[in-house]
Amino acid sequence: MPLLHFFLSLLLAPLLLGIINRTKAVFAGRKGPPLGQLYYDLAKLLRKGAVYSQTTTWVFRAGPLVGLAAVIAALALLPLAGRSAVLAFGGDIVVFAYLLGLARFFTVLAALDTGSSFEGMGASREVQFAALAEPALFLGLMALVRQTSQLSLTAIYEHLPLGLEHQIGLALVAAAWIIVLLAENSRLPVDDPSTHLELTMIHEVMVLDHGGPDLAFILYAAALKLWLLGALLVNLMLSFFQGSSWIGGPLFLLGMGALAVLIGVIESSMARLRLNQVPHLLVGAGALAALAAVFVLR
Question: Domain ranges in the chain?
Answer without folding.
Answer: 2-297
